[in-house]
Request: fold
Amino acid sequence: MPRAEDVLRELAADQAGLVTARQAGAEGITGVRLVQLERRGRLERVSRGLYRFPTWPSEELQQYHQAVLWPQVHRSLEYALISHESAAELYNLTQLNPAVVHVTVPRKARIARDLPRWLRLHFEDVADADRSYERGTPTVSIPKTIEQIAPYGLDVVHRAVSEARERRLLREDELERLARSFGSVVLEPYVAE
Reply:
């Protein structure tokens, strides 16, 4: 039988060294065992129900992983996705520099505890086709990201579409979707004004 710590490391491998109490419980590791590992310095409590291995190398994307795991600490959600300005930053599509990490969860999700200051939750039903992974992080798709940053104005949308087209990140059907939403001007090359 594998040691609890080994099981937790395996879970944490794809999550920047992070693991939730719910994930541990699904593997038969009790909350008491998590507290014991924390007291021994083998785990570090990041927030209620969320732990990280202190010896795990710090990653550029660690805050994104923490953000998508935070709403799932005590419940199983269909998804928790990096979204809005944070997704645009993750895809490197715009110059937006969000002060918080934006995460979208299903509309029916109920989160009763206080949000950390660095996290903003959005409640929206996101179709399977609009769920993706960017650098191993659950993220809304590029077209969905562009639709979500539309409140910043057509100039930001146009720049994001241009960047995505230049890097060949959009399929034809996705370009058509964006043209229907924002007009054919977004398909023209972006020129800074």
